[in-house]
């Protein structure tokens, strides 16, 4: 009982954070202090190159907030079971996985299924052409907005999805050949007939560290980088997604998810509990209104996500890494993958206040071309648009998660393939990379692996 009360008090202190928004600071190539490049998360950087690199709490948390983080950590890893049960009841009846950590393994990136494996770390969004409530995707009758491919005993999964790949051959400017694999997705074994025209979009679980720092960037700073009409003529037309905020009952800036379709970590967490695991909560519940996770535990998980530190960089001073960074900037990659951001000032939660961080994202939507298009709108994001993915920690993916599958659907088998899939607004930068000689291409990859 004492833990429950102290947890609620601590959470109440955190979830009401108010921010003082600062004037925009656009990225300048010469503003990053080389001595600071090691500290990707500012004061919330940890130096761990092992398999646990993504799982550290913020530095400097007072004891009572560290306890909230621990409670959230336990709940994030909790395995749900079918009701009735003495511990963690409420799973299903249809679901995608049994815990948060089952998808976000070691707080990192999900793995695409191998041959004969289920898509345990993937989910598939579905919708119909048109617009749903508050501008959301139009749900599919009987399915909602994602396919639950698992079910409790005596229940039937909604459907499954078969994944296939076709290899396509290309060549670098120096004549060296390379292959990209193009995925195809087929809905199989639907529990009821699907209407014509269903839009299907795959999603791999994204890393969850550093999200509290991204949430602490002011809306003003994010919106200042919008250029939807490309008025500066640089070919980059980033724009914001505006989405329905359930807590505030209004449309607010989206900044989380592959298409920036969630306005806050709390809403993203609550949505995942409900849609992925089948756990009703304050923000998302069935018609009977029965809640299967308490507010205190929901907020503890939200706080856990807010307070996961960012792994520091490696080999920053190596000549090849420095060469790769210079090329990254000159190719134009940094026009979307903004190296530097500054969090807003807050007296309520100083751990995120006015931090110079290096997430390599602008948190805006960009047209990534037909090659990566899912052709499924999500609020204001169209079928070609994706939010710029943060790059911090990306070089530790193999160590933490045991694979190097990248992009929203894991089609890229390494960082080089991830670059070569870029199109749309990134087409020119991709082509510049493609025409580099092998030593320069390797230097760019060495830089990315240092992040």
Descriptive overview:
The protein has a three-stranded antiparallel sheet, with no helix packed on it. It has a two-stranded parallel sheet with strand order 1-11. Strands 2-5 form a two-stranded antiparallel sheet. It has 451 residues and is of the alpha+beta class. 47% of the residues are buried. Helix 1 (2-15) crosses helix 7. It is built from twelve helices and 15 strands. The longest helix has 14 residues, at 2-15. The model is unreliable at 1-31 (pLDDT under 50). It has one domain.
Q: Which SSEs are present, and which pair or pack?
A:
Layout lengths: L1 H14 L29 E2 L16 H14 L17 E2 L4 H4 L18 E10 L5 E2 L11 E2 L8 E12 L5 E12 L10 E6 L6 H5 L3 H5 L17 E5 L4 E5 L10 H13 L17 H12 L3 E2 L7 H13 L9 E2 L13 E2 L7 E3 L17 E3 L9 H5 L13 H6 L6 H8 L3 H13 L1
Parallel strand pairs: 1-11
Antiparallel strand pairs: 2-5, 3-4, 3-8, 6-7, 9-10, 12-13, 14-15
Helix pairs in contact: 1-2, 1-7, 2-7, 6-7, 8-12
Strand proportion, as a percent range, falls in: 15-25%
- Quick one: overall form? globular
Helix segment count? 12
Rounded to an integer in angstroms, the radius of gyration calculated over CA atoms is 21 Å
Keywords: Heme, Iron, Metal-binding
InterPro entries: Cyt_c-like_dom (IPR009056), Cyt_c-like_dom_sf (IPR036909), Cytochrome_c_Peroxidase/MauG (IPR051395), DHOR (IPR010538)
GO molecular function: cytochrome-c peroxidase activity; electron transfer activity; heme binding; metal ion binding
Protein name: CxxC motif-containing protein, DUF1111 family
